[in-house]
Design a protein that fits this description.
mainly alpha, two-stranded antiparallel ribbon, 13 helices, 58% helix
């Protein structure tokens, strides 16, 4: 049964990749020349012309800043190559661009090949990076599976994906969370746990087996160890409240099947009512927080999403740099630009883990 599911998943994703260009053309014909956000306040908002332009400028920045080996890294130092390249690929995929197809096909092929080589060359499969990057790599492999122009890629992607999922499963702590090192005795924190579990949800969506026990233990960690009933949010280590952990914890809990629970609803309410949420100065982990928060609102339903998306859309458009990036200094983390593109492109719903 698992094998059939995986084959069906790969076939479906490959068909979708072939249809994307037609779908984008159909959407373009249906859109007005200026702004085409829907007027009905109860409906999910669509993209605006300004958002599309911001996305395209962001993608051009990524093309111009891609390393020769296909990776995206921190400028100058070359750090966070696995995270930057994984997110870079997803930024293009959220707009319907995939390796081997269209004007960005070659650049995305190089990025895909870089990730596959890093995985193949790693004796353990962990690639010598922390769990944050392992999680993002897992999402990228899950969403790439069956979506490239070369069918031979599927076997390599499947092998890399199944291998890294086993690393994640073995690394879950006794309390149900994850921390930086890929081993169960490393402890746990809500930030790493959210990233890692979102990746497992993505792998599961692609057809990889994720045991129910893993999901139940994750739920137990978030509900019993990290959620603070008085503050209505999630703490970094233990009960408490931070914007980033509350957004990530809520999204992970939703993907684990806890959408309608009181504690998840309370966390969503805390995000909606926090005056620091949309302030770049007061929300220290702005891009990371909103990467989770927008998806938590998608999971919460169209009414909440319709109120949330225009706020973060307009904030990100205002924060975009003249060069098309969201980097705020010369040597900056590589996650800010692709995460901004992913957030802005949420209405496209091309990536399964970002769908309800």
């Amino acid at each position: 049964m698992i094998a059939i599911t995986r084959q069906a998943s790969v076939h479906l994703r490959f068909v979708v990749a072939l249809m994307v260009s037609c779908l984008l053309l159909t959407q373009a014909c249906a859109q007005n020349d200026a702004s085409y956000e829907v007027a009905d306040s109860d409906a999910a908002p669509e993209l605006t012309e300004e958002a599309e332009k911001a996305i395209e400028r962001g993608l051009q920045f990524l093309i111009n800043s891609q390393n020769k080996d296909g990776s995206w890294t921190t400028s100058g130092s070359g750090d966070y190559a696995i995270a930057g390249t994984s997110l870079g690929l997803m930024a293009f995929m959220v707009e319907g661009h995939f390796p081997g197809f269209g004007r960005y096909g070659d650049a995305l092929d190089r990025a895909k090949n870089y990730l596959l080589k890093r995985a193949k060359d790693s004796p353990t499969g962990a690639m010598g990076v922390k769990m944050y990057e392992i999680g993002l790599f897992t999402i990228a492999m899950s969403e790439l599976w069956g979506m490239t122009s070369d069918k031979d890629d599927n076997e390599q992607i499947q092998a890399a994906l199944e291998r890294v999922v086993q690393i994640i499963l073995r690394s879950q702590s006794p309390l149900g969370g994850w921390r930086y090192a890929p081993r169960p005795d490393a402890g746990q924190d809500t930030s790493v746990t959210a990233m890692v579990f979102v990746s497992l949800a993505s792998a599961r969506e692609a057809g990889v087996l994720v045991p129910n026990d893993t999901i139940e233990r994750l739920t137990g960690y978030l509900r019993d160890q990290a959620f603070d009933e008085q503050r209505g949010g999630f703490g970094y280590q233990g009960k408490g409240y931070t914007l980033a952990c509350t957004a990530g914890g809520a999204y992970a809990a939703q993907l684990a099947g806890n959408r309608d629970t009181e504690w998840v609803q309370a966390a969503l309410g805390s995000l909606e009512n926090d005056p620091k949420m949309f302030s770049r100065k007061e929300n220290g982990h702005f891009y990371y927080t909103h990467y989770y928060a927008i998806q938590a609102m998608v999971q919460a339903g169209d009414e909440r999403y319709a109120k949330w998306y225009p706020k973060i859309r307009d904030s990100l458009i205002a924060l975009q740099q003249p060069n098309g990036s969201w980097q705020e200094k010369e040597e900056d983390y590589p996650h800010k630009t692709p995460m901004s593109i992913i957030i802005l492109g949420t209405p496209n719903r091309y990536i399964p883990v970002y769908q309800r």
